[in-house]
UniProtKB/TrEMBL annotation:
PROSITE patterns: ABC_TRANSPORTER_1, ABC_TRANSPORTER_2
Protein name in UniProt: ABC transporter ATP-binding protein
CDD domains: ABC_MJ0796_LolCDE_FtsE (cd03255)
ABC transporter domain ranges (all copies): 6-228
Keywords on record: ATP-binding, Nucleotide-binding, Transport
Superkingdom, taxonomy of origin: Bacteria
């Protein structure tokens, strides 16, 4: 690849006697949407956690956008995640007592932005995801698809280099799932954000540019994906 944003080399990771990763090499191209697939217990979540700097591998290296994450302390990795990485989870993990605007603004406030600037950017991202009329509502008053779009806006408001999406539509019905995936991929492709998408669902993976499959701690394939 001409311009990889993530280069992982020789990753191993064990939890007690269990080898979760057994020497994985992987590159992710800048602006690519990569689907990481695999059965439960295959090591796919451990791989992605290493790529995102959430955990350190036992051996090997991860270079993200020019920074060797494996050479950093936990506090330094946390700073990189705040500034350059976005996360979307299956159940959104929004704060229920905050409005949509406040949820989206939170990462900017944590990074030291003023309340006014953070709210302005939060509202702009809600608008981009078709949620301008939900800005003052709490997550509990929204549909599941709307709440997940708020979570996507929160993940993208800092303009991360890489978005890690862990089963982002796993809790939604098929119609909502397609709507949310379509909205997410539209905005990330416009902004050039790289996406690493963890999924067990082939239809979700079909939205990606490429798929890799993790089995027993090893990569078993890398395939171009054709949207359904």
């Amino acid at each position: 690849m001409a311009d990889p944003i993530i280069t992982a080399t020789g990753l191993t990771k064990s939890f007690g006697p269990t080898q979760a990763l057994r020497g994985i090499d992987l590159t992710v191209e800048r602006g690519e949407v990569l689907a990481v697939m695999g059965p439960s217990g295959s090591g796919k979540s451990t791989l992605v956690h290493c790529l995102a700097g959430v955990i350190s591998p036992d051996s090997g290296s991860v270079v993200l956008d020019g920074t060797d994450l494996t050479a950093l302390s936990p506090d330094q990795r946390a700073k990189v995640r705040l500034q350059r990485i976005g996360f979307v989870f299956q159940f959104g993990q929004l704060l229920p007592d905050l409005t949509a605007t406040d949820n989206v603004a939170l990462p900017l406030l944590m990074a030291g932005r003023s309340r006014r600037a953070a709210n302005t950017q939060a509202i702009a991202w809600l608008d981009r995801l078709g949620l301008g009329d939900q800005a003052d509502k709490s997550p509990g008053s929204m549909s599941g698809g709307q709440a997940q779009r708020v979570a996507i806006a929160r993940a993208l408001v800092t303009r991360p280099a890489v978005l890690f999406a862990d089963e982002p539509t796993g809790s939604l019905d098929s119609v909502s799932s397609e709507s949310v995936l379509g909205a997410m991929l539209e905005v990330v492709r416009e902004s050039g954000t790289t996406v690493v998408l963890i999924t067990h669902d082939a239809r979700t993976a079909a939205y990606a540019d490429r798929e890799v499959i993790v089995r027993d701690g090893l990569l078993s394939g890398a395939y171009a994906s054709v949207p359904a």
